[in-house]
Amino acid sequence: MDKEFSNKVNILKALAILLVVSGHLEFSLFGMFSPYSFQLALFFFISGYLFKDKYLDDVVTFTKRRIKSLLVPYFLYNTFYLGVTVFIAHLTGKFWGQPISLKNFFITPFLNGHQFDLSCPLWFVTQLFMTMIVFLFLFRVLKRTCDNKFFHLAVFAILGFFAIPLSKIITLDPITLVIVRTMFSLFFVYLGYYYRNFIENKVDIFTLKWAGAIITLQSILWLFNRDFDPEHGIGLSYVLVWARFDQQLIVPVITALTGIWASLLVLKLIYPYVKDSKFFYHMGDTTYHIMANHLLVMYIITAIFLYINGIPIQERANHDIYWIYNPIQTTYLYFVLTMVISTYSGVWLKQIKKKFFPNL
Fold first, then answer.
1. Does 120 have pLDDT greater than 70?
2. From CA 357, how far away is CA 103, in angstroms rounded?
């Protein structure tokens, strides 16, 4: 992997995690591209972009690497947040999660990942693991059936687009939720693979005509947007973990596509200016730790604000996990502090791992 490719991937990952954290603070970095409307699809896209054909003939190596890179740190964090959740319960009188049990520790992570509220963004990690394993086996079958890129694209597109109407005609239980999420995410994994192999460096999708078409399409999509008034329900945003798409059928897929295009355009525009930035490099290199810890960092910042203003910490228990103190004035301070603290705590954790647990 050459240095420029690695740098671009890191910056794209940094951009994706910035979108996740800003979404949890309920503002958008991209204007007409609403929070929650594409950032998770972007992460799936990046995973497909990094997928290598050699793994199609080496399932064991691929699976081992995904277990080591995704599941092992996941359950280390699961153990950590079990302790943190118990500790905070003694301070606030509220247990931020589901009851402690073997099922909730080992099984719930693969169903919805919300066993502990403070680590709930990590639901994406187990879903990514399942999606990538399914993608590997399905792609192997498709390659052997008909080795044609348009056939493969059609199959994955059908899965992605059909996931939403399927969620409306079946009973959504923990298992069917996993099925719907996996169908939806498989499309964007393959799209990342398709982009790298058949579009990037071959077709220029960043011309003025493309930009005009995407902006026009996104403007039309905005007619369906109701996110500025929560009482009206979801518009362009969707809640993938619960397969909550409200009345939408194809809008979530379309807005994910336009959002990914916008992210690639931003990458193209900012890369010359940030390619040598250590902070952006660290951010892209520690997205896992940022995903795991940003809610805890926000929780601690809120506790500090409460202390400074003489408000009992128990007040925190009267709100949901995403609540922050005085958001009109503090949202952007939360954003900056959360990104800096969670990024460099991730750097520190990676250094500890490299020094003391190099084989983990």
1. yes
2. 28
Q: What 3-state DSSP class applies to 200?
A: coil
At 263, the amino acid letter reads S
DSSP 8-state class, residue 93: S
Tokens of 31: 């204007």
What's at 171, amino acid-wise?
Answer: T
User: Which pTM value belongs to this model?
Assistant: 0.95
Locate all alpha helices (DSSP H) within the chain, ordered by sequence: 3-24, 39-49, 59-66, 72-92, 102-106, 108-111, 123-145, 149-169, 174-194, 208-221, 251-274, 278-285, 287-308, 327-356
The residue type found at 269 is L
- The C-alpha atoms of residue 92 and residue 311 are separated, in whole angstroms, by 12
Which residue has 């520790």 as its token pair?
A: 105
CA–CA distance from 290 to each of 59, 62, 147, 311 (Å)?
Answer: 29, 24, 38, 28
Q: What is the pLDDT of residues 177-195, one digit of tens each?
A: 999 999 999 999 999 999 9
Going by the DSSP 8-state scheme, the letter that residue 100 receives in this structure is P
Residue 167 burial (C-beta neighbours within 10 Å; 0-12, 13-18, 19+): buried
Neighbours of 107 (CB within 10 A): 12
32 vs 89, residue with greater confidence: 89
Summarised one tens digit per residue, pLDDT across range 204-255 is 999 999 999 999 999 998 887 776 565 555 578 899 999 999 888 899 999 9
Q: Can you tell me the distance from the alpha carbon of 164 to that of 181, in angstroms, rounded to the nearest whole number? A: 9
Q: What's the N-to-C CA distance of the chain in angstroms?
A: 22
